[in-house]
Design goal:
Elements: H1 7-71, H2 76-100, H3 108-173, H4 179-218, H5 222-242, H6 249-262, H7 265-367, H8 384-473, H9 480-511, E1 519-522, H10 523-540, E2 543-549, E3 556-559, H11 561-577, E4 582-591, E5 601-607, H12 641-651, E6 657-660, E7 666-672, E8 675-676, E9 695-699, H13 703-715, E10 719-723, H14 726-735, E11 740-744, H15 752-767, E12 773-777, H16 782-790, E13 795-798, H17 803-819, H18 822-828, H19 842-876, H20 879-895, H21 899-909, H22 918-935
Helix pairs in contact: 1-2, 1-7, 2-3, 3-4, 3-6, 3-7, 4-5, 4-7, 5-7, 7-8, 8-9, 8-13, 9-12, 10-11, 11-12, 14-15, 18-21, 19-20, 19-22, 20-21, 21-22
Amino acid sequence: MRIFSGLGGKLLLAFSLMALLTLSASLLGWVGLSHLRQLEQGVQQTLADQELARTLSRLSGEIQSASRLLATATSEQEREHQGRLLTLQGQQLQQVLAQLGRGQGSTSLDQLSQSIIGNLGQQGWLVGERLTLMTQGEAQRARLVAAAGQIAELARSQMENAETVMVAGLGSLYQQQGVQATRTLDRLLEQDLDWLEQMTELRHRTLMQQQRIEEMWRSERQEQLQTLLQEGQRELAILQLRAGAVTDPARRQAVEQALTVLAQSDKLMQLRSDWLGKGEALRVLANANEALMSSLNQQVGELVSRARDSLGQSQQALSQRLRLLEQALMAIGLLTLLLLMLLMWRMVYGRIVWPLQRAVAGMSRLARGDLAPLEPISSTGRDELAELGRALLVFRDNAVELGRYQRELESRVEERTGQLSHANERLNEEVEKQRQARAEAEQANRAKSVFLATMSHEIRTPMNGILGGLTLLEDTHLSDTQQRYLAAIEHSGESLLEILNDILDYSKIEAGHVEARREPFPLFQLVDDLSALFRPKAEAKGVTLALEYAPGLAPVVEGDLGKLRQVLGNLLGNAVKFTARGQITLTVAPLACQGPCAEPCIRFVVRDTGSGIPADEQEAVFEAFRQRKRDIGHQGGTGLGLAISRKLVAAMGGELILASEPGKGCEFSFSLPLQRSSAQLPAEAQPLHLGQSRDILLVEDNEINRLVAHGMLTRLGHRVTLAEDGRSALALVTERPFELALLDINLPDMDGMTLREDLAAISEEMHERPLPAIAISAQMYPEDIRHCLAAGFVDFVGKPVRLAVLANAIDQLFRQEGASIEPRVQLSAAAPPTNQPEWANPVLDADLPLLGMARIRQLVALFESQGRVLVDKLAQGEGSEQRQLAHKLKGSALALGLTEFASHCAALEAGGGEPATIGAQFEAAVSGLQQWLTANRDAPF
């Protein structure tokens, strides 16, 4: 066969034979071990059966002992105890018998166990019945004995009466003579003495009957019970005759009733007879159980004996098989050894090892470059080693030929290497140029960001002067025409500021500074104002601007009003610019939201009838600084409007989409998850809250801004001192104290952060009072505001400064500081007037026109949610942690006008008060706030 002609086939045949012999030896060993395992299992089973037999013998003794104790139980508790014990022992007996009879197919053990358990159950029932009969018999015996005792006691009293009558009659004989004395003596002998004898007999027989009842209950034989019952019935008949001699009707009735009870002695006899019968049945069951136990033990012993005999036979058979197995293994081992030696000599060494050694020697010579003729590896054969020898000869011939080619290639490689080195140098030069270009682009991008940030500050500074001056001009005496002009100028300034914000928004977006705010605003008023703003421009071009507003939308929603106005204004402005005729439509309608929205999303669509945009150019209009010249001749702009709008819509959680065809106009649409808001927005602007006049230090380097801010502060009623740089401010604070400092962040000589720290330190050292500071800056990125507040500023006001914002910041600061002093005066003063309700809150009444009911509701809800957490922590805290929590609660309470609750918090902060009562006081404060909200729910704010 060709498969065995090769080296692999020969090795396969040899090793297969060896594996077959090894497998045979393993199989024989496995057979022997299997018999050993079976024998071991038999030994283990026999030992287990013997152990189970001993356990069964022990259980039999315990069951018999418990059965005897159960038979002699004298109370229900003892019977239940012994019954539970027998139940457990019976279960153990069944388990042992189940293990003992497993695999032997014997049902007699199961039948015996069932019979024993059934007898035990019957025995328990008989003992229960016997105890019941005992209880009933004791009760019946007690009634009979009591009735007999009652008759004996009545007979004794009648005996005493008869003796008294006889003594009286004998006494009267001494006073009588003749016939009268004879009559009296006859009556004594015939009546009184006979009555005494009858009563004496009645008492004696009654006592005998009582003794007979006791003997009847203690009797242990049925014959004795019958004899006692017959004697008792005869005595009962005599007692009924003697009962007629009782002269007293009441006593005679009592005796007759007692005799009626004694007539029931047959029931006592029947109960005792049943009790004896149950005892006899118990003895029969006990004997039966003993016989069953004996039979059970005998059968178990026979099972164990048969298992022991079977184990002995298995051992003899196993010994014979093991001897045969040992001889077979020795023969296979010798045969395997001989075959292995033959294979090693003929196959391994003769046809593998020695040819391989010659092949390795030849390959080593070839590896060293020695191309001399090789020694033959195998002269004959068609196996792999012979093929290897022929292959080495061919390899040697090829090596001689390759040497010649190698010398030719070396010359060519040297030439090509020089060419590649030159190309690599040129590639490195190009990579360096690309790196420099990328670095220059990154530097230009950073320069652009710095330029936009600088322009933000520099352009907002004159805008602050313009808008601030217009605000101050409103307070002067102007005619109606001047007021209209002033309103137009102010509106233009606001529009210019919005345009500036649009230009600078792109830098914010690139720097990642865009954050969507959530605040309530009237949606219809927003779109209506935008329609009114752009409608005159559209009508001037002969274009109709229509507003389609779905009636089912919420009147007030929560979202970013500024960004939404900016996006819609940009889209409407573009539509007006690029639409020559036809109609522009702004549609606002609900849209089913696929996300986890509590309300449906709102879809905004701006549709025009302009020239349209081809499909291949639609995505390009959203690129920054990219404009498309439409066919109506409009040019200009920065090309940032749609790029900013798309990014703003994305920041608010939507996507700006364009659908257009050339000649059919454009449709820009997006949807936002604007949630319904329950906030009540004020119908008109709220009046400014003019508080107490304060000494304020204003530090501003721009003269126009100083003039505007000074005018605003003066209008608010404050006393203002001006400083144009940090050094001037430090000198002024050194000379006199101030209550507040308004600091520009960017000053020519120092930054506002350092100036605030120096001013606060000088005020503490020179005037022993703190100096709070409010930051003023045109850089209004969120991180800038957080940085200022983290540096110690109490508030932040952005440029251009608005009067209402500035007034609110100052009022909040001093309202919080004054709340820590003024309420203490109220706490120590007399009780509030009786004409005010308990929930009256002057602080919230004053804040209502400024903040509005919606904001106050938010404050109350925030105080309730955060306050509960603080109250829980305060009740469990100790030491400084408790004082810090009390301080936080006090500040929140004073801000909401909760003076009484604040006084409790102040006491805890000082180390007094009871932390355990703070929870009830907090609930009372929250209840007062809810009552105030209910009373003011119809407020116009």
